[in-house]
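Instructor's aside before we start: the two examples that follow are unrelated to each other. I chose them only because their records fit on one page, so don't look for a connection. First example below.
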Amino acid sequence: MKSDDIRVAIDIGTTKICTMIARIKDKNTYEVINITTMDCDGMNKGLVVDEQLVSECLTKSFENISKEVGININKAFLGVSGAHLESKNHSTNISRPSGMTSITQDDIDEALKIASKIDLNNDRKLLHAIPRSYTLDGLHGIVNPLGMHTAELHVETHIISGSLSSISNIQNCLKKSKVKVAGIVAEPLASAEAVLSPTEKDEGCVVVDIGGGTTDIAVFDNGNIIHSKVLPIGGNLFTSDISIALDLDFNTSENLKINYGNIGPDQNNATDEIKIKPRKMDEEIQITRRELGQILKERAAELIRMISISLDEPDLVDANIGKFIFTGGGSKLNGFMNVAKYILQNNVRLAEPRGLSGITNTQKDPTLSTVAGIMLWGIKNKEVSSHANLFNENINQQERENSSALSKFMKKIRS
């Protein structure tokens, strides 16, 4: 493995930190060589609430994966989420020479540069200006205008921005861990990058990534993103409901959800009993799987309805939505897809990350879609220099620096 082939992606979630190391095999092939997931403290609903705690968790994550792979990480692609992310579709008129002229690649590059220079409040940071289509002399929906002739040119872009302070806070956490940010991607965009096929983008779909503290949403139609949003709710609500309803601590409630939670209609073992010990009781009691499932089902239905309501936007009135693609840990709840299909009255699919080789069968999990998407987006859109050095390269570099310093010192003595 060459050090100039290494890329690092980091997903700092409300409940976990996921770090991925990949190697660039060739221009279109990327191989995952390691993934680590560990608990995260100091985050709430995608926002940093304690920089010190988050940076300590990041440092531990980087140290663990560095030892396993044999590298020193110095840069990483970073995903950001949270309700502070906002999106809008924007149309920009591009000045053209008088008369009918052919569009060159320079024209397209200049158009995208101009479209990116939009007015934002001082507390906002532009993350993405994604070209959706072009309009040539009133003809809409042109995907690639290269070589076409026109007197007037407009570019339609999807703009995603975030709170400057929120983004700075999460960047500071990496800085404290001595890792630079190689690129930032909005996580709704990253999740879509990892799970969607070109056909799904063309036909129209909604990607819903249910994490621990947030739900990321991205809508595609005619091959382009047309809407993105983050809801400040996630799978932690399932666990909190169990904790409150049954008077259990959070970890016990989480284990109940994972091991016994089922909200589907086909519960053959619905009457099976589960022993629990509420905090305010001296003895264990028993509940059935059906009773546990009812607690979870009510929250799941509420979450799905909130997702549906969030799509009541002017930009989506004419959108063709043929499918909902769910991913993220919250969507893995048994029976969730059944409830989603019933409430949304649409096709649904539970998605795993795709597009990266080297991911084992056990790692092909919806919980890894975001970090996989961050990696894919970074490789395709950002700089090509390595994010890490091999340990032996660091040693050799230190030896060269020491040798150089000694040589300079000896020359000074002789002079």
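Example two begins here.
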Amino acid sequence: MQKRIIGSVLVAVAMAGCGPKPAESINFGVLISTTGGYGALGGERTQGVQLAVAEINKKGGVLGKQLTFTAKDDATTRANAKTIAEEFVAQGIQAIIGPAFSGGALEVLPVTGPAKVLQLSGSATSPALSTAVDEGMFFRTCAPDTAQAAVLAKKADDGALRRVAMFTDTGDGKAYSEGIANEFKRAFEARNAANSVVTTVALTAGQTSYKPQLDALFAANPTLQAVLLPLYSAASAVIIADYQKNQAGYPAVTFMLTDSSAEADFVAGVSAAGGSFTGVTHFGTGPGASATRYAGFVERYKALFGNEPEETSFAANYYDATYLMALAAEAAGSFTGEAIAGKYIAVSSGGAAVSADDFTAAAADAKAGKDIDYDGVSGPVDLAANGEPAVAPYNIWSVVSGKITSVERGVLP
């Protein structure tokens, strides 16, 4: 996987579609982890934004001006995310795309909401964001983990995996980890009276081995059938490696993984920890995409950056978030956070279908007050009243020949 790290903590990098920032431009902030627990695919997420900006600028920009952005890395820590957001607000930036991780997104809401600064995310999936106080300024183009958990629960139930244990993170990944774990338990146990989450193990990320936790888990639960790992990829990789190296003494279980482990670094991490996938039954969930528009997005992405994005990177969701921002600004006739927020849902659903391919005409229609419905490359992105997709497709993945590989596509909750 080719990574491109854009920006660093407290170091701003001005990005346009290409070339230096022009005098007549509109600048927004990008706050996406490129280091830390959720940073492995951060470069691709930022490139999703950059591709959209390049295309929009080529088609005339927004409100007659070119778009630029300033990118910073929060290192997947909530404190950094809040500090950077405060800096963006102090600079007068009206829109921030990010943070990428749920804990960071929740931490930033008290900064952006009162300041009436637009906050968008393409990968912060915690259910807590569905009801968090955001003063109408937060939107996301990824579905909440109530949907991902429902897909996992159905997959486990269909496979007759009745007794399940879960690991959760106590650190900066807590909001994501506990959110999906809680939703999985609710959905899984509701599907069948025989289904049970028998225990939840809280762990600290960053350890070099979780064998003591696995030993204790399996000693207490010898009839366990599955283990859910809603963790960042580094911790998931160590757990898989520990299990594989010691599986002769453990019950045969199926590991269920989530979008946070759907990256090449997860596979490399298992190897680095001295393990492999030999004898390890597993599957995971990750973001799906539009059956008709995603292929074109990949072609354009490769033409600009020289490599294809990982299908599970959420790059497509960040691309869509940027296009929706541009169309909402045109509809509002202004690039203030409050004005864009007032039109963001409206341009995502309910009107004449438009796409990134016909942005010029779509922008003109939005400016003229016509009702448009942006169809994205990540899916329909029809946003509900709370600013998140009402429905979104998922892919089921597994590690095949050393690569994250989608084995089922377009799965709905």
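Residues 174-191 form the longest helix (18 residues).
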